[in-house]
Specification:
The protein has about 240 residues and is an alpha/beta fold. It contains 11 helices and 10 strands. The longest helix is centred in the C-terminal third of the chain and has 16 residues. The chain binds adenosine-5'-diphosphate (ADP) and magnesium ion. Magnesium ion binds next to helix 1. The site of magnesium ion has 4 residues, from helix 1.
Length: about 240
């Protein structure tokens, strides 16, 4: 489904991701691991169509995702509907004046009927256990609550792929356990889940696969998440632990 071929990305000439090759099948769950600055967020932004390769290709179901195509509003809407992106900082994502409007925004943009929008909003608020916050202004919520609203807003579009950048960041232990269980359930229901993370206590048993990036922005390992997390010498060698 997702096919990243020899992708390099540079910010103002400085490499952030170097010749990454990564294929992700529908329904897979992948942890993107690596030290700070290794390119995890850059990879997720490329997958989410927020950045475009400086070199190499990104194919989705065999069709190349190019910047020009994403400038077309219809194509762009279809793409962002299929691939949902949950930003590391929910403040980047939330812009409406109530939780309910925030979650309704995506489905409304999709042109869904009023009852269908309502159904999706109700479902996603219930799924994230934030129904009691529906009238609140996102500004007034805690970090963990904002994160739940951001996830609900993305899930309301019912994307096939869920990209999450450091979803466990700034979340309390109870919130992390909830999020872990939610991601497991979403993946079991068929969604493809890709998350950049370094919260090993919570990702163990959550992802089937791990893609590990090194300080020189290269993909150095791609394999079973359990095996990689158990390989302490490897993680230490790459300054991950
Ligand atoms: P990670 O998420 O693994 O911490 P990033 O993908 O954020 O890594 O960053 C990879 C590299 O790109 C780092 O060297 C970082 O400093 C650089 N970088 C990230 N975002 C920007 C940006 N907007 N402008 C310039 N350089 C950036
Ligand atoms: Mg990052």
């Amino acid at each position: 489904m997702i096919d990243i071929q020899k992708v390099t990305y540079r910010y103002l000439g400085k490499p952030a991701l170097v010749e990454a090759d990564l294929q992700i099948e529908a329904g897979d769950s992948v942890a993107v691991i690596g030290p700070n600055g290794s390119g995890k967020s850059t990879l997720l932004k490329l997958l989410g169509g927020l950045l475009h390769p400086s070199e190499g290709r990104y194919l989705l179901d065999g069709k190349e995702i190019v910047e020009a195509a994403l400038k077309d509003p219809v194509y762009s809407r279809q793409f962002h509907q299929r691939i949902g992106f949950v930003f590391q900082n929910p403040d980047t994502q939330l812009f409406c004046s109530s939780v309910e409007e925030e979650v309704a925004f995506g489905p409304e943009q999709m042109g869904l009927s009023v009852p269908e929008v309502k159904r999706r909003v109700d479902d996603c608020l219930a799924l994230l256990q934030i129904a009691d916050l529906r009238g609140e202004h996102p500004w007034n919520l805690s970090g963990g609550e904002k994160k739940r609203v951001a996830i609900a807003a993305v899930l309301a579009m019912n994307p096939e792929v869920l990209l999450l950048d450091e979803p466990m960041n700034g979340i309390d232990p109870k919130g992390k356990a909830f999020l872990r269980d939610l991601l497991l359930r979403l993946n079991a229901a068929g969604k493809t889940v890709v998350a950049a993370t370094h919260d090993f206590a919570y990702i163990d048993g959550l992802f089937r696969r791990a893609a590990v990036f090194s300080e020189d922005h290269r993909l150095v390992r791609d394999g079973s998440c359990g095996e990689i997390l158990a390989d302490r010498p490897f993680l230490a060698r790459h300054n991950i632990i």
